[in-house]
Amino acid sequence: MNDWAPIAKEYDPLKAGSIDGTDEEPHDRAIWRAMLARYIPNKGVTGDPHLTLFVARLNLQTTEEKLKEVFSRYGDIRKIRLVRDLVTGFSKGYAFIEYKEERALLKAHRDANRLVIDQHEIFVDFELERTLKGWIPRRLGGGFGGKKESGQLRFGGRDRPFRKPINLPNMKNDFYGEGSAEKRNWSREGTRDWRTRDRDHERSRDKRWPERERSWAWGESERERDSKEERSRGRERKDRDR
Questions:
Q1: Per the database record, which ranges form the RRM domain (predicted)?
Q2: What is the distance between the alpha carbons of residues 62 and 76, in angstroms, rounded to a whole number?
């Protein structure tokens, strides 16, 4: 727990799929795909990865000129790469911006996140493809993105940092009877007492059952007897009146 950090220092698809990084089994198929993937960063990408920003959630109508206008406020830009579809040429909604100085990069990372451009609130983070060890992109089941509706949220990034795990070893051991020998013996004796009490209760109930049946039957005969006596008395009165 001493070296715990909310932001991942090394990418692990299994940990990224867990809210606190403690999952031991993947909870969706995308994590399985990311764990089995062998991804090699794109060698065709040029520029310094430590001076590059990743900008996502862009309006599909946003252009390179608009990005240059907004992000040049933080410092001198060396290169802007708006990712487009190879077939249609339309924007995919994310871009990479390389600065000339680290000071401008840090300032843009701090101030440009959640900035509204063309009616869209953007997301800004450092480039991770070439800087984070073990990185697997979203298209292979990795990444730090995802939607709540799909159930494929990823944690350990700026948008969704890890939550600190809760360690309760003593409570867990006591709950499952893994504590001292005295506690285990006490729990076993308690279970025996309950079992013997249940058996005695069932036996006494079986004994009382025929007695109740007899009492019910006796009660019915008494009522019949009383009704017969009342009828006979009524007949005697009628005979006298006549």
A1: 51-129
A2: 20
In the chain, domain spans: 1-39+134-163, 45-131
Tell me the one-letter amino acid at 130.
Answer: R
- C-beta of residue 141 within 8 angstroms of C-beta of residue 33: yes
Domain 45-131 CATH (choose: 1.20.1250.20, 2.40.30.260, 3.40.47.10, 3.30.70.330)? 3.30.70.330
Q: What's the pLDDT tens digit per position in 151-181?
A: 889 999 999 999 998 876 665 555 445 555 5
Interval 94-109 mean pLDDT: 97
